[in-house]
């Protein structure tokens, strides 16, 4: 009797502990995903009629077929790719700055916090600052280019430059983020190994490559993941700096999704949901990689 | 014991009195997105209405201007107020089609509004029903800086404007003087639609423009190319980098005299004045004539107020709508800007409102604005196309083909 009770306790208790999280996860994660996927098969303007009836129309894969031939979608996808690739610059720059700042000099704490600063301020503020920086006629960057070349460049009005301009703005706080990750990582680098390597005559690049970097692998791993996710959800900067313009040249998938589903001229909920599903699929590639690696590490232990 | 009973009785009595007081006043809920200045005027107009109808309580629930455009889609189904502000033309079509706005033809009929507000009736009508009361509209045209004219050595025009060729010839002079002939800030896209609309109205006329926004003309048609050809003539004289600035930034260029003309609505006059421009410096003219002999149509977007289908108190709401349509209310609502749609109302004593009113009074027809005349999706694609053409004119064929694809999809679905 007592043993069976203990058994059931063993079986039931974990689920009881899991239950609150599972319920939340179902309501706020699983259900919205399922709903978005369902919605992506409908053409719906977001309105219910007077009786509260859904007014959408089932179109099957119609939204996806339209996406395939939609130039704006192609532009957004390409821009997302640019974001992904260029955002990775945050890693080497962040690492370099972390190594540079990882020393004991008077006032180093102050210097460190100055470097952290862009990570602390809101993305909206970063976006505003950079829009002024690029602004034609009075922006610092514009005036500087005008002074050097005689002709100012309005980055945010140029369809070929605009995405790079926004990525540069995004890199500023992202580098600070990576810098923090690496600084904490550097704290955990075993000093005895560094010393041993030094005795063996390693220094400079070889020391970095063979001794320091392998020990920073956990930090690098996290930095890659947050940078990838940061690049894919680059919504706020695009929204603040250009609203996707000029004529949609700086759109990314997340912004296009917002525009289609909730923008002033959008309210194509099904189409927006289809974009969300595509973005989700892309993110899943990276998230699955992350989970797979975590799983492997856990089971190895 | 007796004391508690009597206290309880007194409480019940009080409660009854309170309910009676509430019961006497029937509530009409009214959702809106007024900016600060119009909101103050609306509140005083509502106060007057309540004084005349002590049994009706109008509860104004004001939203942020932009957030309202999203919120209305939720509250109309989830928790409909009795009244809501919105825009005329195609912008209200989704709500009418989903049965969320109520037909108020009876209010129009009882108050003889077709006679007093005939000019705006068409933009409120769908399938024989009339779905709202217009309370203000504002006119578009060209505002210019007289000082810029002086510096370029050109005689400033009168309200009647000039011909297109003269205008473009002046533009060359302005350019030589280092002044942007026409400015705009198209970061939010819609300002370029104003320029396109006017060139379209002046090149092919009002009826053609309406056919275009109704999806009856292919974007690849030669008539559309004619409009773009005229736009191309103006293109070199428009402020460079307009795609990176907002309309207020472009207004600053007018104030500073770095640009001469601005194709914009009457609402910009306030911005010019705040920037320090005097009424003597600021000029207004109607958009130049392009095709000789075409009747002059103007852009005049209309703001409206609607009875919702889910209204709890439609009777009193209609009383209020009739009051809003009255000449007295319309005069007051437009006292500090905007024009009253009711022809018996009087226009505020402001030189620019007066000239607007005159320029509209003898206009052959009124267009709403591209994003109100065309369905939302077509408007978004087209405005992006206009902006792209101004930056990359060599892409014209690609732009027109894309717009044609959008047209075929959007209007087929309607």
What is the overall shape of chain B?
globular
Note the main sheet of chain A. 2 strands, antiparallel
Report the CATH C-level class of the largest domain in chain B: Alpha Beta
CATH superfamily of the largest domain in chain B: Periplasmic binding protein-like II
Weakly predicted, low-confidence segments of chain A: none
Strand order in the largest sheet of chain B = 2-1-3-12-6
Which protein chains make the most extensive interface, counting residues with beta carbons within 8 Å of the other chain's beta carbons? A-B, 33 and 37 residues
**Separate helix tally of chain A:** 14
**CATH architecture call of the largest domain in chain B:** 3-Layer(aba) Sandwich
Instruction: Return Rg of chain A in Å.
Output: 25 Å
Which strand order spans the largest sheet of chain A, edge to edge or round the barrel?
1-2
Given the helix and strand composition of chain A, which structural class is it?
Answer: mainly alpha
Provide structural commentary:
The complex is a heterodimer of chains A (301) and B (414). The relative contact order of chain A is 0.12. Chain A starts with a helix and ends with a helix. A two-stranded antiparallel sheet of chain A has the order 1-2. Chain A has a single domain (71-300), classed as MetI-like (MetI-like fold), CATH 1.10.3720.10. By secondary structure, chain A is mainly α. Chain A is built from 14 helices and two strands. Chain B has 414 residues and is α/β, with parallel strands linked by helices. Chain B has two domains: 25-138 and 302-361, D-Maltodextrin-Binding Protein, domain 2 (3-Layer(aba) Sandwich); 140-299 and 375-413, D-Maltodextrin-Binding Protein, domain 2. Chain B contains 20 helices and 13 strands. Chain B has helices at 2-24, 36-52, 67-78, 93-97, 105-110, 113-116, 118-124, 146-152, 164-176, 190-203, 206-213, 222-234, 247-256, 268-274, 314-325, 327-333, 351-361, 370-373, 376-391, 396-413, and strands at residues 26-32, 56-62, 83-87, 125-126, 129-130, 133-137, 140-145, 180-183, 259-265, 282-285, 298-299, 302-307, 366-367. The relative contact order of chain B is 0.17. Classes of the chains: A mainly alpha (301), B alpha/beta (414). The interface between A and B is medium-sized, with 33 and 37 residues.
